[in-house]
């Protein structure tokens, strides 16, 4: 492992990811397996003037034991101190780093409904925290660090040591930690993503027709006042940050009741340690009316049936097939990377910031504007080499957005 790149990655997370400010608290959610890297982030944060660095350690092996053995009452209950942990730091104005590095097969054989019970209980308990993040009231970033189980899933032919080393190399490349000046490289990357956003600002479309040879044939209407975002974002105090590292997407909000047709997933989805493979969903007036999966059907069912809003979409994201992560030809089994190699949709909650003045709207106003709400937000990929996307303008003119899997605008 290249120690210089390692330090540059940690500093990127602090300076570019959450853009930590002097005297601000940093909260890190970290697997215990990557403790050494988490300590490096903490040191970088203090070097930047952090008031405090707080770590909430996570152990997926212990989580599995709980899902298998704990009584239902425990799974459905979130202690007040856990809720207070999230809310107190969020209200204080802390920044949040989430290190996402799950074993894609860990929960194989575990009753997915039990995992969903715990997930729903936590989602309900910390709803205010999640809403603050999705409104960018708190700056946040999701990143990944190799673990042995994840690396072996990605590179099964390699030894554990070799697999971890290879995954580190790929991560350094995709997050630009291997550049001479990673911070400047990210500024340039975000500016390039913003250029494409300008096209939609100047040429707004009211709907998109998405098709490919897998069987996807989907009409997606966009709500009035929708905004396309990508690259960096801004918190209400005007501080720029990057919520996902890596990121290659341009995304917006679909109209809740404006999605019709069928979408076929182009990659497996790892959700809470369970894989969903070869799946599809059908929509009518925005709602999922049918779905199939060769593997992980019950997990998909639990996602769609989480709550009233989980059978609607909350995000549409465009990523060219010819993009840095896609060109690696690696299936990561990790949504942070796979979603930045492919166009994707998200089941569940929408980002209010994707509609004009959405961050200032009430729940009722967002609903009236066609913005979906839910306890969940689960991305899945549909992009392919032959993907075609045609937009309809406000003047009912058709324009090509994607041809052969790539932007033509």
UniProtKB/TrEMBL annotation:
Its cofactor is Co(2+); Zn(2+); Mg(2+). The keyword Protease applies. GO terms for biological process: proteolysis. Keywords: Aminopeptidase, Hydrolase, Metal-binding, Metalloprotease, Protease. The keyword Hydrolase applies. GO terms for molecular function: aminopeptidase activity; metal ion binding; metallopeptidase activity. It comes from the Bacteria. Its EC number is 3.4.11.-. Belongs to the peptidase M29 family. This is Aminopeptidase 2.
């Amino acid at each position: 492992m290249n120690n210089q790149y390692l330090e540059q990655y940690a500093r990127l997370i602090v300076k570019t990811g959450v853009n930590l400010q002097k005297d601000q608290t940093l909260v890190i959610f970290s697997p215990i397996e990557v403790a050494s890297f988490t300590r490096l982030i903490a040191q970088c944060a203090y070097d930047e003037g952090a008031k405090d660095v707080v770590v909430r350690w996570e152990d997926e092996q212990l989580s599995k034991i709980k899902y298998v053995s704990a009584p239902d009452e425990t799974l459905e209950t979130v202690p007040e101190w856990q809720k207070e942990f999230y809310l107190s730091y969020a209200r204080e104005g802390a920044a949040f780093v989430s290190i996402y590095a799950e074993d894609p097969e860990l929960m194989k054989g575990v009753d997915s409904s039990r995992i969903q019970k715990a997930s729903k209980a936590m989602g309900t308990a910390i709803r205010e925290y999640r809403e603050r993040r999705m409104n960018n009231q708190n700056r946040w970033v999701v990143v990944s660090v190799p673990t042995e189980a994840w690396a072996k899933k990605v590179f099964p032919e390699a030894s554990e040591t070799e697999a971890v080393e290879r995954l580190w190399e790929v991560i350094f490349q995709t997050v630009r930690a291997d550049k001479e000046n990673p911070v400047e490289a990210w500024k340039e990357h975000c500016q390039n993503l913003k250029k494409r956003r300008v096209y939609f600002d100047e040429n707004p479309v009211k709907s998109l027709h998405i098709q490919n040879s897998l069987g996807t044939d989907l009409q997606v209407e966009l709500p009035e006042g929708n905004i396309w975002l990508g690259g960096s974002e801004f918190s209400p105090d005007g501080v720029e940050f990057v919520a996902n590292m890596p990121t290659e997407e341009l995304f917006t909000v679909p109209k809740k009741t404006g999605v019709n047709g069928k979408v076929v997933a182009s990659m497996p989805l790892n959700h809470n340690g369970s894989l969903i493979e070869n799946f599809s969903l059908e929509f009518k007036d925005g709602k999922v009316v049918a779905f199939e999966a060769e593997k992980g059907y019950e997990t998909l069912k639990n996602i769609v049936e989480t709550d009233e809003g989980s059978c609607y979409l909350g995000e549409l994201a465009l990523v060219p097939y010819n993009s840095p992560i896609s060109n690696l030809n690696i299936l990561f089994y990790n949504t942070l990377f796979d979603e930045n190699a492919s166009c994707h949709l998200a089941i569940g909650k929408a980002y209010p910031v994707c509609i004009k003045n959405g961050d200032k709207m009430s729940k009722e106003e967002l609903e009236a504007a066609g913005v979906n709400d839910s306890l969940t937000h689960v991305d899945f990929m549909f992009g392919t080499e032959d993907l075609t996307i045609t937009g309809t303008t406000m003047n009912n003119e058709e324009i090509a957005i994607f041809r052969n899997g790539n932007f033509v605008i």
